[in-house]
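Input sequence (377 aa), recorded before submission:
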Amino acid sequence: MLPRTFTSAAAPAKDHTCRSSGYHYIMNRTVGIAPPPLIFSSAGVRGGAPKKDRPLFTTAATTTGFPEEPYFQYRRCPDDVFVLHLIMDDMHKQLVSLSGSLARIADALSPAFDASVFDRYTAFKCTSRNDRLVIRGIDFPDPVNFREIIGIDDLVADLRTNTEQFLEGLPCNNVLLYGPRGTGKSSAVKALLNAYAAHWLRMIEMPRDSLAHILDAADIIRERKEKFIVFCDDLTFEEDDRSYRHIKTVLEGGLETRPSNMLLYATSNRRHLMPEKISENLPDPQDELHPEDALEEKISLSDRFGLRLGFQHFDADTYLRITENYARLRKLRIGRDELKRLAMEWSISHGSFSGRTARQFMDSLEGKLRRKPWKRQ
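Predicted structure, token format:
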């Protein structure tokens, strides 16, 4: 609303003028001229203002100096239309700027998917932001290759055969790799990317907390020419966790078919991905009438993986073979007997013969052999 100035009849006869701040700003900034005054005076009502003043608004005032029932009388100014256009143009520019700022804020909170990321990367990771799927490229994927993997040759052969069928467009299966920790499950899957990236294989890592968006990921990659493995590492579910149902829908059972260029490879320490209790196999009067139904619900998830590869604990001989293989690949100068002695000491202190323990030992040994002596103070 425009500011108003009232003149009392008892006060000295003097007209007070006021101007709209926006009107004044537009006229001075845009065309460099002063706007005509907005005059509010008692004389303008009683006798009418002179034509030279050309008031936009006039109001009546009481003898006390305060308006009793103020009213406005609008008189057209020749510059009104021009000024209105200037004001509307300025408002339009401000709205465009505001719209751009809001778009940038919305994109920061829930960025739109950029399909070109599939042209620039071979490995990807899914995250959930503001309940929306975000797929970003991985700049430095794990360089592990099959030359480093020892002791699980038969399992690796089955995994590679299934993947090659997938790349050739032949029937193949989703894969579940289960077994003890540190036995090469994740390394075997990641080595596939380095072996077959040149054959259009791509890999999308999907953590368990983003599984709710697996159907969104399927829609995004459905029309792509590349072949995608959705990799779920260390996949396990608790009894009260129902997010596994998203995977069941993608694997089998949903009305919408899984994209032909997508497979799901999962690793887990549990055979059936969910905890199993001895009490579930024992009769309990306080439990379900048909406990086998609850057991079927748990097993049904792992059943949807057509290829299930079980890994076993490594023995000492396999552990030593792994360390010798690492020493050869890294070209370390160390005697075989010395390597065996140090490797066994490391495994005893860590309580494991796993492949992960062997790699950690070799990282430590290589660092000690290649380091330069420091002058310590």
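Checked by second reader. Confidence is low (pLDDT under 50) at residues 1-20, 30-35, 37-76.
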